[in-house]
Each structure stands twice: as structure tokens, then as C-alpha cells.
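agent> fetching stored inputs for the 2-acetamido-2-deoxy-beta-D-glucopyranose docking request
agent> found them:
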Amino acid sequence: MAKDVISKSTERDHPPLLVNEPSHLGKRRCRRTVQLLVLATFLGFWLRIIPFKWPSLSLRQGTVLPVDHVPDIGLPESLMRTWAQYAPYIPVAKYVPPPPMCTISQVHVLQRHGTRWPTSNAAAKCKSAVDKLKRVKDYEEDYLVFLKNFTWDLGENDLLPLGARQSFDAGVAAFDRYAHIVSNDNLPFVRAASSTRVVDSATNWTAGFNVASHNTIKASVDLILPESGNLTLDDNMCPNAGDGDAESERWLAIYAPPITRRLNLAAPGANLSNKDTYNLMSLCAFHSQATMTPSPFCGLFTPEEFRGFEYFGDVDKFYDNGHGGNLGRVRGVGYVNELLARLTGKPVRDNTQTNRTLDASPETFPLDRTLYADFSHDNTMVSIYSALGLFRQYLLPGQKLNPGDPSSLRTWILSNMVPFGGRMVVERLKCTRAAALPAAFIRILVNDAVQPLKFCGGVRGLCELHAFVESQWYSRHDGGGDFERCFD
Ligand SMILES: *[C@@H]1O[C@H](CO)[C@@H](O)[C@H](O)[C@H]1NC(C)=O
Ligand SMILES: *[C@@H]1O[C@H](CO)[C@@H](O)[C@H](O)[C@H]1NC(C)=O
Ligand SMILES: *[C@@H]1O[C@H](CO)[C@@H](O)[C@H](O)[C@H]1NC(C)=O
Ligand SMILES: *[C@@H]1O[C@H](CO)[C@@H](O)[C@H](O)[C@H]1NC(C)=O
Ligand SMILES: *[C@@H]1O[C@H](CO)[C@@H](O)[C@H](O)[C@H]1NC(C)=O
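agent> prediction call returned; pasting C-alpha cells
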């Protein structure tokens, strides 16, 4: 029925056109091209001034990725990517192993829980918008008629089967890539924040990891960190942190009113607000991923309208946990300090969110492992990316997203950063350069896209480990006073 609604509605003068539109693809391609050009210019610059030469075109082809990349929901990938933080996991690039003169010596995975139901809070808002539409007796447009029969049967908070599957697949992919650095004497060390969906994602990940090893490896979740206490895998330890509401509402007031007007004409008396419109759009994402078919709610909107929805999420998190936030990145400092400890094999030095008791004990914070996996939430991961210096918006005025005007030059795109099941992987490498001793390097992949690491002088995404550690001044200084500002 859902597919029906969508195709029928394409004949009318309103929304649905759930196909890859050439103009949309064109814009994306244009954006990619600009990004590549900038990257190329940047790399060209560094390649000229660095004191040694990397062998040309040394990248090997990506190894196996045994699982489907794009979940089969019956909707175009381009549409699912406009769901911002509610997008399913879709890799941003094809995984490319490090150059041949490098070997991977240690890996750190930080992963968001997989696709879930809406949170209780969001579900209540979605249901209220649906109820407004359901109270209307006669719809003016066919694309609303399904509501007559629609009964609210959505869950709340918990992981969906798609989220469990994608977490499992991530464990499989991690084993396929990194099997050579683990053994039963050197198991992955796995931690999860205590929300059920996060713990379920972690256990599904370990299940996938073990199955991929034909159960020769028996990884399990080592530590569940209560979200009520000190922890680095949640962002709730900074009471004074602001939010992105002012900025995202500014954008809502621009993109949503024409949609709200159209829906209120189609459903006379519904009296939907712009926020209702936002919530109904989010239902397209949740409902489709729950049923694994295109939700009829998707048929209420055009792909262009979903691009407005996407930017709402981008702006909201940029000005909350991101670079634009008052006390955004400080909420990522604790994790970065743990990462630095693991990368350098030295005890954690942190006076922010870490649990000092746990981090001081080799039982609960070992430093001798080669693979670490931590499971968390989107907001926390955005803070961590920002604390690290990833996704700085060098090409935008003031390095800020303009809440009134989406720029095609922005790389701050949540579906590329923290979709459900989104992940950051830090690889520590041992690289041999011509006429030099082997040295430790790192590279960082976000959803398989190698990050340029401009902040530590990255060359083809590689930084020397000591330069990376140097670059993390903000975290090594507990946020340079920002953590105190969380409280006073
Ligand atoms: C509503 O549900 C009934 C029973 O399942 C079905 O016969 C009917 O066609 C549905 N109506 C619409 C508009 O989908
Ligand atoms: C995977 O997650 C689901 C929740 O969606 C949970 O019920 C199940 O126990 C998990 N499976 C494993 C192997 O942990
Ligand atoms: C730190 O961890 C210990 C051990 O799990 C726990 O008992 C304690 O409550 C935690 N402290 C805080 C402040 O979270
Ligand atoms: C429509 O909703 C707004 C709040 O969004 C409310 O202030 C107004 O009274 C409602 N109008 C009607 C006719 O129900
Ligand atoms: C929890 O964090 C606070 C703030 O940094 C700190 O004062 C306290 O000592 C920490 N407690 C533990 C057990 O680490």
C-alpha cells in the first residue's frame, strides 16, 4: 500500500517524487567535486613541503565488505541520506586499507547504537501530530487517506531489527578487517553506555565479530557504564551546556511553513504547526526502518522538502554538541583523553567526565589491548568529533553553519557523521618511510571515509602519532576551562 500511495501521488500537483532526481544528484556531485578539489589542493600543498615522499598510488583495493551497504527499504539512498541523524547506516566511502608500508597495530572503534524506535519524547510528539491529522473527517488529498486506517503501533527507544542487524554486520566487518590483531589472548575490549539500545548494539556487534571468526574468538561486552554516573560515552555531565534550539528553529521557520500550509489545506482543520511537520517527516524515517518498506508518511513530502528536514538536524547538532555549541566539544574531552591513553599506552589523564576509579584499573581500563570498541549515542559522538577537530567547516564564513541558508560547501552532514550505527575508527599504524626508522601514525575513518586530519598536518589522512597527540591540546587541558564552565 505504501508504494501505491507514493506512485499515485506523483500524478498530483503536490509532493511525492520519491525517485533520484537528477538535480539533486547534480548538487551532491557538485558538492563532492568541490570537496575533492579543495582536498586535492590541500594535499598538493603538503606533498610539496613534507620532507619525504610517499610511494605514488600505493593504496590497495579495499578488502571484503561481506554485507549489504544500503539497507533495502525500497527507498532511494539519496532520500534516506536526508534523514540526518535518523538515517540508517550507509558507508560514506569504500574502505581503503592503509598504504603498504604501514601495518595496523591498534584499532579503536566508537559506534552509535543501530536504528531504533523514536525516543519516548519524540514518539509522543509524532503521535500528537498524527492524531491531529486523524481527527480530520475529509482529506483533500489522496496521500492522506491511509490515515483513516492507520493505528499507532510504533515502539519507543529500543533497537529495531535493522539496528540489530547493522550492528551485527559491523562486528563482521570489524573482524574481517582486523582479525590479524586479535586472538583469544588478546580479545577486543568492549564498553557500552547503559541504555538498552546501546547495550544491545554492543552485544550484536560482538556476536557478529565472533561469528565471523567461526567462533574461534569469544568477544563479549566487558563493561556497561551507567548513564547516571561519570562516563565518557554519554553527554549528560555538563548542566550548563546550551542547545541548538534557537538556530534550528530559525531554519524551521524558513523551510517548514510552506509544507505546513500545504498539509493544512489537504487536511482542513488539522491545524498542524511547523514542529508537527518536522515530526511527521521524522516518522517517514522511523516507520520505514521499522517496517522495512516505504512508509506512507514519506508520501506526504517531496525529496526537496526532505532536504530542508536534513538541514534542521545538521544545524541543531552543530549548535548543540558541535563546533558552534556553547560547551559542545568539551563533552567529548573525556573520551579523547581515554583514546590518547590507549594510543600511547599511558594512564588516563583527565579531569572531566571519566570515572577515575574505573580508568585507573587494568581490569576496567586495560592499556595492553589492540582492539577497543565503545558504544554510545549520536550527541556524544558529535562532541567527540568536535573535540578531536574533525568536521571543522573551513569553507564556511566564520566556520559556522548559517541557520538561514544551507551551504553546499558544508561537510557537516549528519547522515555522513552519526547515522544510526555510525562509527569512527582510529587506526594506529606502524609505517616505514624511506631511510627512516618505523614510526607510529594514525588515521581516522568516519563511516569508512578517511578524514584529512588537517589539525595534525595530515598527509593522505595520516598523521604521526606524536603530532596527533600534540594537536589535542584542548582535551589534554580538560577543555581549557570549559569543563568548569559546565557548572558555574
Ligand atoms: C482499511 O482497512 C480495511 C481492513 O483491513 C481494508 O479493507 C480497507 O481497504 C482499508 N482502507 C484503506 C483506505 O486503506
Ligand atoms: C541484538 O539486539 C536485539 C534487540 O534488537 C536483542 O534482542 C538481541 O538479544 C541482540 N542479540 C545479541 C546476540 O546480542
Ligand atoms: C565509578 O565506577 C565505580 C565502579 O563501577 C562505581 O561504583 C562508581 O559509582 C562510579 N562513580 C561515578 C561517579 O560514576
Ligand atoms: C492552532 O494551533 C495553535 C497552536 O499551534 C493554537 O494556538 C490555535 O489556537 C489553534 N487554532 C485552532 C483553530 O485550533
Ligand atoms: C566524576 O567526575 C567529577 C567531575 O570531573 C569528579 O569531580 C569526580 O571525582 C569523578 N568521580 C569519579 C569516581 O571519577
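agent> quick read of the result: The pocket of 2-acetamido-2-deoxy-beta-D-glucopyranose (ligand 5) is lined by residues 230, 351-352, 355-357 (CB under 6 Å).
agent> awaiting further instructions
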